[in-house]
Each structure stands twice: as structure tokens, then as C-alpha cells.
Specification:
The complex is a heterotrimer.
Chain A lengths: L7 H8 L12 H6 L6 H8 L45 E4 L10 H14 L4 E6 L6 H4 L3 E4 L8 H14 L4 E5 L2 H14 L3 E5 L1 E2 L4 E5 L4 E5 L4 E4 L15 E2 L12 E7 L13 E5 L6 H11 L2 E4 L1 H5 L20 E5 L5 H7 L4 E6 L5 H5 L2 E4 L2 H19 L1
Parallel strand pairs in A: 1-2, 1-4, 2-3, 3-10, 4-9, 5-9, 12-13, 12-14, 14-15, 15-16
Antiparallel strand pairs in A: 6-7, 7-8
Chain B lengths: L2 E4 L3 E2 L6 E2 L2 H11 L4 E7 L15 E6 L7 H11 L3 E4 L12 H9 L2 E11 L5 E7 L5 E7 L2 E5 L11 H6 L1 E5 L15 E4 L16 H9 L3 H6 E3 L3 H14 L11
Parallel strand pairs in B: 1-4, 1-6, 4-5, 5-11, 6-10, 7-10
Antiparallel strand pairs in B: 2-3, 7-8, 8-9
Helix pairs in contact in B: 2-3
Chain C lengths: L3 H24 L9 H20 L3 H22 L4 H4 L2 H25 L15 H21 L4 H20 L7 H11 L36 H8 L6 H5 L1 H4 L6 H11 L37 H5 L6 H5 L6 H16 L4 H13 L27 E6 L7 H16 L4 E3 L9 H5 L3 H17 L2 E6 L2 H10 L9 E3 H10 L12 E4 L3 H4 L6 H8 L4 E3 L17 H4 L7 H11 L4 E4 L2 H8 L7 E4 H12 L1
Parallel strand pairs in C: 1-2, 1-3, 3-4, 5-6, 5-7, 7-8
Helix pairs in contact in C: 1-7, 3-5, 5-6, 6-7, 8-9, 17-27, 21-23
Classes of the chains: A alpha/beta, B alpha/beta, C mainly alpha.
Chain lengths: ~400, ~260, ~625
């Protein structure tokens, strides 16, 4: 009984971050500060029972300052009115540079705000540096927004220069980029422009420390939050609190640097030509598909890359490049729509990396049906025209 | 066109043995389409990058550096002297800090333009200009015309690397360069604590944000109501089509119906 | 006039010698090779009469035809030369004997003609070969007539002159044909049997099928031009009689892939000859266009050379052609040495094969999977790692251990070993791939690295013998690692299980008479001559065993060898589909296999009616039934 018993509740409460709408904790607090040091003399003094002739100690007393009791979870939280949180004068600013691909926040973009809120704590504010107007920025967690002015089109150097000058002008404590092709590129340009080190591909965020993998994922590096950060996808939860005001922060326009890029032209994706290994959404045909014209139409209408089982490729009905499976292409797609594929083991090995599988097959006991997140036990030949019809109906309803 | 290919001592993703990163092997193939290419490696020894000799490079310049030293000043000094028109590099290293900053820092030191994620490159229609194709997410691309010199980083969708040829590797030469790297003001390093990597569970997409752990579990396993709805036995084709479209939208691979967003 | 016929024969021999020497000048352009001439010459009769005859006799008509015509021709020609001896030249009995020999030749010539006329079998070549019967008939009947005239004492200069003229037309034609015509096979064939590059294959015992290691410090790796081939290899190609037995055995040819072993050998001959006659046999199926330059000793492989790369990569290295060749030509050696140049010097392999070779170099495993995951199939089974202790049996798992389907077979095997209380252990993460696939794809450098590493690992541990279920691993460990200092006793799991059953350590029950047919793996049957153990084992399981038309050492490949699946050369059909159709002809409900590659290839056939089961799986079912 000499050692004080741990009180997990109290420890949790001590790690709680004040100010957040939801209970949030800084689990690094203890790691960073180490274990609270014991003071055996003080403890002994506190355990001393007064009045006894001999020295008597009451070991039940820890002698350490009692932690505040953790807030009880039993209290039913009143349904919070979505009230906009206004931060009048933040002590410092944490910037987020979302990709805003096609003008919308991606899930990854939203996670940046979650990380930024953690780093901003109670006193700091989160500012979104956006190239375009964004109505979603407030609900996503931005206290401020700033429009980055820059030339139209592909001008990453100009964007980087604008961010670097904003960094100086607003004295940003942290700038968080998504570790995406665009965001990662921008972060590195800003890093060399500003001469700041970059803490790239961060996988864990707390107010006190960040963690990133290094040496080909053999070690993890932990450090106090750096000024420039790129955040890995799906590592941090998005901000889930009440909406924030996203007030406009006026910026001094900075002069764009001379660019060596003479022309840039965007070529939209053609799912029909995307290599299978890169495709995000694969629509695949097997033995149960006899009408390949309709199949190609379905793939095109859904915007998926067409694939096929080995049987169709062997029969020459689909090109060899379209073959999915251990002996064809091993996919890394988000979704795999299997039309009329029973799912031979070799085929399933090619689909192992897919996050979601939708199967349409007549056999309830087919392996592919078992693997699928959504399984339709029906002839693919009748489902395919229905899909086309349904998509056409949706378009028709809008027009 | 003079081309330099930056080579790094990478690691095989499965075995962890020294290996030439695949992107750099692809870079060699892109370089072959542009002109005469030489490899450039800075590090303690050039054994690992010697693999590049079997993939189409006939010569590698090796700048000896202590392990863990910042390669940028030495590489910049060599490249300033050689003055290549195009520098090709992978995305990031696989054995050091792996921040992916080297190409950018070199470009700044050389006054070159960085074009990332390149899948194809050819000389432009006029001298001093290069035309490259950049891979964008989800199969899109961008064609960029830029003035030389440029630093290009390679995207995994670039053409497959040439197969390794032992005979060519045997004949290739590695030339050791002694470079007195000028002391350049390097970016202040971040003090880090290192320990061995532990994979962590990824956040689940589509899990309700801020929901309880039970909600997230349900979303992950497709339990609860989803379990019953997951298998549709002999549905009407139209019903099946609707279910498929709804599912595809829920996981975000299909755009919402027109008018809904 | 009695000297006319022997004079003709001497002229014929002189002409044949001149023609053979002209041909030999081309052989001498090949690389040097060590040849044991004395031993080869002494062994020639046995090699010809036993080994060659054994193969020729598989086609009884051809065997009879060849025996009659060749012995007749030889006897008649030799006998006739004796006429220069005065007492014989005047002897009517002697001429009667000569006439008899020519008579036999004539009968053989008729057989030769009857084989090609009125309709030539598809696998035989036409062209110069269609003239051969006429030359033989002319020589035989001319000689017969002349000898008969002399034997009967008919003194008609005109008749004798006409007869000798007829014999001369045929005989000189035959002698002339020694350089580039059908008769080349006789001279080159005899020399080839003496100077054969694999003399061990005639010594009985296990087939000599191990590939020779390549000197990686040689100035040029592999074979680029015919000059890189050893001279006795060039000679061996000249022994080809274009009988087409190889093409009817070749699985790639049957599947419509652009490979025909006969054509390949003839292309190699043509690549080393300035004025080779046009090839008149069946072509490469779906032949790829090539632009062959006229000059000899040019590059052999390439779209701008004689042989298209697709032809080279279609081969499954199953050795069916070698097994069938009556002239003992080693096709697979030639193919692998050509592949070595493509891979090692040019890096000219397909994208998928290149990725496989990269995996070999990077992860020591063709699929790029972690070596630690090899034993994952055995989760829940007690399968100890080998340690310091000496074990009876080291179980070599091979590449199949990563395959979900084949994991079932290995689990069955491990259960059987436990049942028989065998002291067994595995290498665990120390087991690298044997490198067999890398070697067949021509990557000898990677193969040798793996072979040395594996030999070193095995030398560290103490075990009595190695058991493996993978015939490819078996062949590498048993035969090919010998060149790298590895001398192990390696047993295939079928042989080992039979041993356990015969010792009574496993007691299989009966499986109720289901029909089963056994598919021989090439690397077990043809490469190692083991065809009986799996059959004996199956016969003890109470199964109704039937044989496919092609079985044993003459079995057909599943299409999985030699890197053919990763080279993936398109054809008209798939080899495993053809093989499963052959299995279906037997009506057996179970196809028994004994190789992970065969299992994967045959299981991959869609719409098959028969089940594919490893011998070990069947035995386990029987043992469980017998409890």
C-alpha cells in the first residue's frame, strides 16, 4: 500500500483540454512532462498522524494534490443549439491550407481543421487560407478565412509565395497542409521559400507533440509541433464542434514571382483509359455478363474503369490489361463493382485491397457475394440495363 | 538535353533490404527519352544505387557523404557545376527523414522550376523549353510547358521501369566525386525523438463524426440495420439499381445525383 | 564392268565427305566445348541402338521403316565397296549378297515413300524431304538391278550401264544431300551422338536435366548469335530430321502460342548457315512477323531477327520436346541460353516477368511477399522451426505456401506427417525461394545469388533429408544446387508418403472407388523420372485409377512452368484448359496432382467437371476414413 493507487479518471481529467465543445484530451501531456515527481518527504509529512506519541503514518493519504473530479458522463448533454462560436481576438493563429479540389472540402481537408483545432487549443484561432470562396469553412472549423490572391491557372510558386508572405504578415504559429499531391507540393514549396523545416506526413497530432514516420516507416519521429506541417489522410478526426464564424481576414496582396511555367492545360480523367492499378472505382465483368456493350455503357455511366475476370480476357472479349486478379492486376481501388463474377480465389486476391465491394451474381453462395459490402443476388444481365435506366431517370428528373 | 537523375539509397518495402526506389528507376526511363542522362547519388556508399546501372544509366556520379548528413549542399554544388537542363528525382527518400524536400531545396539552389508528379516528358517545340505531363488524382492529367532548367519528380503512374539487366549493370561505371560542399544556411532542423514505428489504426471514412464508439463499430462492420440490407435476394432490377447507386454515393465514388448538391 | 558399282560408291562417299566437311566448317564457328571423343565413340553403338531406338520405337511404323532402310543402305553400300577385292568382284554369290542388301534397301525405300505419299502426315516436313524417297528408290533399285545382273551373270553392258546410272542418280543425290538435305541427319546425328553435350543422359538412372550454371564473368552472357552456342550444339541442331514429334508434344504449340520446337531448331540452323533451304514444315502458330536478315551469325532473337521474342517466351520448359526427340536434341538448353542473353544483357523481359524478377532481387521471393508469412498457412498446426537439433525431415515449403488453395494441401501434408509421427521442422523465414523461376526466365545472376544463400542456410542446419511438395524446388535442391556445393537427399512428398504407408506408419482406409486420374508434373516425371510413387500411393486408397492418353514421362504440361504464366504470351487456347479436357476424357471425377503450380493452373480452369486434389489431400481423406 505504499504506492499511491492510480486514478484513471483523475488522470483523464487532468489531460482534458479546456474549451473544446466535446471532451478532448491531450494524451501526450503525461509523456511530455513525464510522471509527476514524487516528494517522499512531503508525502511522509502528510501521512503523519498528529497527536500520537510515536510516529504513526496513515498510508491512505497520498499527500499529493487531489485532482479535480472528472466531469460525469452520466449528465445528459442538453441538445446543443448550433450556435456559431465567435472568437473575437485569438491569441495566435493556426492556418489550414485545404486543397478545395473542385471548390469542395474533401474529408482529408476537414481533418486538417481537426488537427488545427487541437494545435490552437482554447486561445488560438484557426484560419483557412483558401484560393476560392468557401461557404463550408465555418462549419468545418475556421474562425477566420483569408483569400489568397494569385494568378489564375496552374501557378504553384505564386500560391506558395502568397502563403509565405501571409505566414509572416499574420505571424501564423502553424500552417497545416494535407499530404496530397497538391497540398504536399505546396507545403514543400513554402518550406524552401520560407527557409522553415517541414514536418511532413504527420500521423498523430496533440497540442504538445506530433508524430511522423521516417526511414521508410521503420521509425517514428516525435517532436513539438513544427511551424509547417503536412497531415496524412485519415489520421485525425475532423472538427466536430459547433460552427465557427469564418470571418474574412483581409490580406495585403503580395506580388507574384515570375513564373517559368509557360502553359498548363488540364486533361480530365477518362476512366476508360485509367490504368486499373490506379483506378479508384472499378466496374468489372465476369462469366455472368454476356452483353459487353451494355457492360461498357454501365462502366462509362458510373464513371468506373472497366475490368474483367480472367475468363473474359482469355476468351478475348476484354483486353488482357483489364484482367483483375492475382495473375492480372491487383487493385487498390476504393470500390469494386463485380457484375456476374463468382470470385475465384485468384480473382479475390486481386480485390483484397479494395475498401468496398458490390457484387451482383445469381449465386447466393458465391465467394464474391460473401466478400461484398452490398450483395445483390440477381442476374447481372438484368441489373445492368436497370442501372443505366436509373441514371438516365435521375438526369431526366433534374432537367 | 542534359539530364541528371537523383538516386537515393532506398529500401525494399517488404524485405527492408537496400534497393533502388521504384520511382527512381522510372525516372531513368523518363530521362532516356530526353537525352543523355547521368545518375547522381550523395551518401556513404553507392552500392545500393548501383542497381540503376542495370536499368539504363551508364554512369553514376557518387558524392561521398557521411551517413545522415544533409545531401542538399553537396548535390547543389555538383549540379551547379554540371548545369543539367533537367533534374529527375523520386518523390521522397526511404531511409532518412523522408520529407521529400530535397528536390525543392535543390530547385531553389539552382534557380530551377519544380514540376511534381510527372508521368511523361519530352523536349518542347522550341529550344530551352520542356513539355511534361503531370498526373493528377483519379486519373486526370495536366500538360505543362515550362522553361528550362526544371526539377521533375516522378509519379508512380509513369511508365514501368526498364527491366534490370545484370550485364549492363556490370559494365556501368560509378565515378566518385570529391566535393567540398560550401556551407549553406540549411533549414534549422527539428529536434525529434525517434523510436521504432508502430502502425496505428486509420480513421474510418464514412464513420459518423463525433458518434460514439458503438456507432463507429457499427459503421465499420456493417452491423445493425445494415447487415439485413446488405444482401438483397432476387430484388427487382430497378430496386437493385437504386440500392447500388445509393451505396456508391454513400462511399463517395459516385457523384450525387444532379440537383442534389 | 564389275568395278562400276564400287566406283560409284567410292564417288558417293567422297562426295558425302566433301559435303560433310563443307557443313562442318559452319559448326566450327561455334564456341569451343569439351568433348570426350574416345568415350563418345565407344558409346556410339549403345547410344544409337538403345537410346535412340527407344524413342524411335514409340512410332512403330517409323521404327520399322528406319531399321530396314538404314540397315539396308549401310549394308549395301559397305558390301559394294568390297567388290574392289579381286576374288569377290568375280563371285556371283557375293553379288547375290549385295543384291539382297539392295533389296532390303529397296523395301525400306518403299516404306519411306509410302509414309509421305499420297498424303504426308502433318507433323512431317515437306520440301527436300519429299524427294528423299525417290533418291532412295533410285539408288536401291539401280543397285539391286546391277547386283542382280552381276549375280546372274548377264553380260549386257547396256543393261548394267542403265542400272548403274539409275543407282548413280540416286546415290549421288543422297551424298549431295549430306550438306543441307535430309541425309544431313545421318552424318550429323552420328557425330552428335558421339559429341553429345549431355553425355550423362545415356548413362541410365535419373534424367540429366539440370541446367548448367553460367559463368557470370564471361564477356557476353547467354547466347546472342549462333557463335555463342557451343559447336556441338550447332551440330546437334543439324541432327534434326524434322519428324515433328516435338511439335505434337509441345503444349505451347497445341495452345496456338507462337512456338514450334521443330521450327525453332530449324531457325537456329538457318541462323548459322548462309544458304539454308527454305523450311517446309508447320509454322509457328499465330507467327509474329519477323524480318530475318540474310546474313548468317546475326542476332537470333528480335522482331528484326529470325526468332520473335514471343516465341522464346512461350516455352514452359516442360521438356516434352526433349523427351520425344529421337535425335536427342536439347531444345530447352537452347531456349534458356537464349533467354539468358535477353534477360541479363538486354533486360528484354515482359513487364510482369520483370516485376517478378524485381521481387526475387528485392524480397527473395517471386511474389514480393514477406518470408515470415510463408508459414502462415500452418496457423494452428504445430510446425516447429529447425534449430540446433538434428531433425529427420526438413520440410521445404516452397512458393505454394503463400497460395490460399495450396495451403490446404500443405496442411494435409503436415497433418499426415504428424499422424506418422515424423520428426519434421521447417526453415521458417530462413527459407528463400529456390530461384527456379528466375533461372527459367534467364536471370542466372539472381538465381545464383539465391542458390548460394540457400545452400549456405541449409549447410548451417542438421537434417537427414529434405521433403518438399514442390517438384520445381525438388529439382533445384536435388539436381541444380549440386553445382553450388549443395548435396542433399531430397524426396518428393508423394515418395515420402508412400514410404510411410509401406512402413505401416500411415494406414489409409478406402475411399470408395471414386475415379481418379493422375497428372504428372513435368519437373517430377520428366525432370526426375519419378512417375511410380504417386500411382502406387493412389492405388492403395481404393480409388479407381485411370490414365490419360499422355501420362508418365510423356505427360503434358499444365502450362505453369518456365515462367510461362508471367510471360503470358497470348495464344488460341490455354494449356491448362487443354489438359483438363484430356483429363475429362478419362471420365475420372478427381484429377490428382502433386505440384503447387499444377494445382493452381488446373484449378484455374473454369467450367471443369473434375475436382483437382493433391495426392496428400486424398491420402489424408483415406487415413481419416480408415480411423
Amino acid at each position: 500500500m505504499t504506492r499511491a493507487r492510480r486514478d484513471p479518471r483523475a488522470e483523464r481529467a487532468a489531460a482534458a483540454l479546456p474549451g473544446a465543445a466535446r471532451a478532448r484530451f491531450d494524451l501526450f501531456a503525461r509523456c511530455a512532462g513525464g510522471r509527476p515527481r514524487r516528494d517522499p518527504r512531503m508525502e511522509a509529512a502528510a501521512q503523519r498522524v498528529d497527536g500520537a506519541a510515536r510516529l504513526r503514518l496513515d498510508r491512505a493519504q497520498t499527500g499529493r494534490p487531489a485532482a479535480a473530479p472528472a466531469p460525469s458522463r452520466a449528465e445528459p448533454a442538453a441538445p446543443p443549439a448550433p450556435k456559431t462560436i465567435v472568437m473575437a481576438a485569438p491569441a495566435f493563429l493556426v492556418a489550414v491550407v485545404p486543397d478545395l479540389a473542385a471548390g469542395r472540402l474533401s474529408p482529408h481537408d476537414r481533418q486538417l481543421f481537426g488537427a488545427a483545432r487541437t494545435l490552437a487549443g482554447a486561445d488560438g484561432g484557426v484560419i483557412a487560407l483558401a484560393g476560392a470562396e468557401g461557404a463550408e469553412l465555418g462549419p468545418a472549423g475556421a474562425d477566420r478565412t483569408a483569400r489568397l490572391a494569385g494568378p489564375e491557372g496552374y501557378a504553384p510558386d505564386a500560391r506558395a509565395a502568397a502563403i509565405a508572405s501571409t505566414m509572416a504578415a499574420l505571424n501564423l504559429r502553424h500552417v497545416i497542409f494535407p499530404e496530397t499531391p497538391d497540398g504536399g507540393d505546396l507545403a514543400r514549396r513554402v518550406a524552401v521559400l520560407a527557409g522553415e523545416p517541414l514536418f511532413a506526413d504527420v500521423e498523430m497530432v496533440s497540442a504538445a507533440a506530433l508524430m511522423r514516420p521516417a526511414q521508410g516507416r521503420r521509425v517514428e519521429q516525435r517532436a513539438a509541433p513544427a511551424r509547417l506541417i503536412t497531415l496524412a489522410a485519415d489520421a485525425v478526426a475532423p472538427y466536430a464542434g459547433a460552427p465557427r464564424e469564418a470571418r474574412d481576414e483581409p490580406l495585403e496582396p503580395s506580388a507574384a514571382p515570375a513564373s517559368a511555367i509557360l502553359a498548363a492545360e488540364r486533361i480530365p480523367a477518362d476512366p476508360a483509359r485509367t490504368p486499373l492499378a490506379l483506378a479508384d472505382f472499378v466496374v468489372s465483368a465476369g462469366n455472368g455478363v454476356t452483353d459487353l456493350e451494355t457492360f461498357r455503357a454501365v462502366a462509362a455511366a458510373l464513371g468506373g474503369t472497366p475490368g474483367a475476370s480472367r475468363v473474359l480476357c482469355d476468351a478475348g472479349l476484354m483486353p488482357r490489361e483489364a484482367q483483375v486478379g492475382a495473375s492480372g492486376t491487383v487493385l487498390s481501388a476504393t470500390c469494386y463493382l463485380a457484375l456476374g463474377i463468382a470470385g475465384a480465389p485468384q480473382h479475390l486476391q486481386g480485390v483484397a485491397g479494395c475498401e468496398h465491394v458490390v457484387a451482383v451474381n445469381t449465386d447466393l453462395h458465391a465467394a464474391m457475394i460473401e466478400r461484398a459490402g452490398l450483395a445483390i443476388v440477381q442476374d447481372a444481365q438484368v441489373v445492368m440495363p436497370a442501372l443505366i435506366e436509373e441514371l438516365a431517370r435521375e438526369r431526366g428528373a433534374f432537367a | 538535353m542534359k539530364v541528371a537523375v537523383l538516386l537515393s539509397a532506398g529500401r525494399h518495402p517488404v524485405s527492408g533490404r537496400g534497393a533502388l526506389p521504384r520511382l527512381e528507376a522510372q525516372a531513368i526511363r523518363l530521362a532516356a527519352a530526353l537525352g543523355s542522362a547521368r545518375g547522381l547519388h550523395a551518401g556513404p556508399d553507392a552500392d545500393v544505387v548501383a542497381e540503376a546501372l542495370g536499368r539504363g544509366l551508364s554512369q553514376i556520379d557518387h558524392v561521398a557523404l557521411a551517413a545522415g548528413a544533409d545531401p542538399v549542399p553537396a548535390l547543389a554544388a555538383v549540379l551547379r557545376a554540371a548545369a543539367p537542363d533537367v533534374v529527375l528525382a523520386g518523390r521522397r527518400g526511404q531511409g532518412g527523414d523522408d520529407t521529400g524536400l530535397v528536390p525543392y531545396a535543390l530547385a531553389r539552389a539552382l534557380g530551377a522550376t519544380v514540376i511534381p508528379d510527372v508521368v511523361a516528358a519530352r523536349p518542347g517545340s522550341e529550344p530551352g523549353v520542356i513539355e511534361v505531363e503531370q498526373a493528377l488524382p483519379k486519373g486526370a492529367a495536366r500538360r505543362v510547358v515550362a522553361r528550362l532548367p526544371v526539377v521533375l519528380t516522378v509519379h508512380p503512374a509513369a511508365p514501368e521501369p526498364s527491366a534490370f539487366a545484370f550485364g549492363q549493370a556490370r559494365r556501368g561505371r560509378i565515378e566518385r566525386l570529391d566535393v567540398a560542399a560550401p556551407a549553406e544556411p540549411a533549414a534549422a532542423a527539428i529536434a525529434v525523438a525517434e523510436k521504432s514505428y508502430r502502425p496505428r489504426p486509420k480513421m474510418m471514412r464514412g464513420a459518423p463524426a463525433g458518434g460514439s464508439a458503438a456507432d463507429r463499430l457499427k459503421a465499420a462492420t456493417g452491423g445493425g440495420e445494415a447487415a439485413q440490407a446488405n444482401v438483397m435476394v432476387s430484388p427487382e432490377p430497378r430496386e437493385a439499381a437504386r440500392a447500388i447507386l445509393a451505396y456508391l454515393r454513400q462511399i463517395g465514388v459516385l457523384a450525387p445525383p444532379p440537383g442534389a448538391g | 564392268m564389275t568395278y562400276a558399282l564400287p566406283a560409284l560408291v567410292f564417288v558417293m562417299v567422297a562426295l558425302a565427305t566433301v559435303q560433310a566437311l563443307r557443313r562442318a566448317a559452319w559448326w566450327r564457328l561455334g564456341a569451343a566445348a569439351p568433348v570426350a571423343w574416345g568415350a563418345g565413340l565407344l558409346a556410339l553403338p549403345k547410344r544409337y541402338l538403345v537410346d535412340v531406338h527407344h524413342v524411335v520405337a514409340r512410332d512403330p511404323y517409323a521404327s520399322r521403316m528406319h531399321a530396314v532402310v538404314a540397315s539396308g543402305l549401310l549394308a549395301a553400300t559397305l558390301l559394294t565397296t568390297l567388290a574392289v577385292l579381286p576374288p569377290l568382284g568375280g563371285s556371283r554369290a557375293y553379288w547375290a549378297a549385295v543384291a539382297l542388301a539392295f533389296g532390303v534397301t529397296a523395301a525400306g525405300s518403299v516404306l519411306v515413300g509410302a509414309r509421305r505419299y499420297p498424303k504426308r502426315p502433318k507433323r512431317l516436313s515437306g520440301g527436300g524431304f519429299q524427294i528423299l524417297p525417290f533418291l532412295l528408290l533410285a539408288y536401291a533399285f539401280g543397285g539391286l538391278a546391277a547386283a542382280l545382273l552381276l549375280a546372274l551373270g548377264v553380260e549386257s553392258a547396256v543393261a548394267l550401264g542403265l542400272a548403274v546410272a539409275l543407282a548413280a542418280a540416286g546415290g549421288l543425290g543422297l551424298a549431295y544431300e549430306v550438306r543441307s538435305g535430309p541425309m544431313r541427319h545421318a552424318v550429323a546425328g552420328a557425330l552428335h551422338l558421339v559429341a553429345h553435350p549431355r553425355p550423362k543422359r545415356f548413362e541410365g538412372g535419373r534424367p540429366d536435366a539440370a541446367l548448367a550454371p553460367l559463368d557470370l564473368d564471361a564477356p557476353r552472357l547467354g547466347v546472342e548469335t549462333p557463335a555463342d552456342l557451343a559447336w556441338n550444339r550447332l551440330l546437334s541442331f543439324d541432327a534434326c530430321i524434322q519428324c515433328g514429334r516435338c511439335e505434337s508434344a509441345c503444349p505451347a504449340f497445341a495452345a496456338g502460342q507462337p512456338l514450334n520446337p521443330k521450327r525453332l531448331i530449324q531457325d537456329l540452323v538457318a541462323a548459322a548457315t548462309a544458304d539454308e533451304r527454305a523450311y517446309a514444315g508447320s509454322p509457328y502458330p499465330n507467327a509474329r512477323p519477323v524480318a530475318a536478315p540474310a546474313e548468317p551469325f546475326f542476332r537470333i532473337i528480335g522482331p528484326d531477327a529470325r526468332i520473335h521474342p514471343d516465341t522464346l517466351w512461350s516455352c514452359t520448359t516442360c521438356r516434352a520436346c526433349v523427351e520425344e526427340c529421337p535425335m536427342m536434341i536439347e531444345h530447352v538448353d537452347a531456349i534458356v541460353s537464349l533467354r539468358r542473353h535477353q534477360t541479363l544483357e538486354l533486360g528484354a523481359v515482359g513487364a510482369k516477368a520483370a516485376a517478378t524478377l524485381d521481387n526475387f532481387r528485392g524480397a527473395e521471393e517471386p511474389g514480393g511477399r514477406p518470408l515470415t508469412a510463408r508459414a502462415d498457412f500452418a496457423a494452428g498446426l504445430a510446425l516447429p522451426m529447425i534449430g540446433e537439433r538434428e531433425v529427420d525431415v526438413l520440410l521445404w515449403l516452397g512458393e505454394g505456401a503463400y497460395d490460399l488453395r495450396y495451403g490446404r494441401t500443405l496442411r494435409a501434408l503436415v497433418k499426415l506427417l504428424h499422424e506418422a509421427k515424423v520428426d519434421v521442422a521447417i526453415l521458417g523465414a530462413e527459407e528463400r525461394d529456390t530461384g527456379d523461376l528466375a533461372r527459367r526466365l534467364g536471370d542466372e545472376a539472381t538465381y545464383q545469388q539465391l542458390a548460394r544463400a540457400n545452400v549456405a542456410t541449409l549447410a548451417k542446419h542438421r537434417f537427414r533429408r529434405i521433403v518438399t511438395s514442390d517438384p520445381h524446388a525438388l529439382h533445384a535442391l536435388r539436381n541444380e544446387y549440386r553445382a553450388f556445393g549443395g548435396d542433399f537427399e531430397v524426396v518428393h512428398h508423394t515418395a515420402f508418403l508412400l514410404e510411410l504407408v509401406e512402413q505401416g506408419r500411415l494406414t489409409p482406409g478406402a475411399l470408395g472407388g471414386a475415379g481418379v486420374t493422375y497428372h504428372d508434373p513435368c519437373y517430377l516425371g520428366r525432370y526426375n523420372g519419378e512417375t511410380e510413387a504417386p500411382r502406387k500411393l493412389l492405388d492403395r486408397l481404393g480409388l479407381d485409377r485411370v490414365e490419360m492418353a499422355r501420362h508418365g514421362r510423356r505427360s503434358m504440361c499444365c502450362g505453369g512452368g518456365g515462367g510461362a504464366p508471367v510471360s503470358d504470351i497470348p495464344g488460341d487456347a490455354r494449356i491448362p484448359d487443354i489438359r483438363m479436357a484430356q483429363a475429362a476424357e478419362t471420365g475420372a471425377g478427381i484429377v490428382a496432382v502433386a505440384c503447387p503450380t499444377c494445382t493452381a493452373m488446373l484449378e484455374g480452369v473454369t467450367g471443369r467437371t473434375a475436382e483437382v486434389k493433391d495426392v496428400a489431400e486424398l491420402l489424408l481423406a483415406a487415413v481419416e476414413a480408415g480411423r
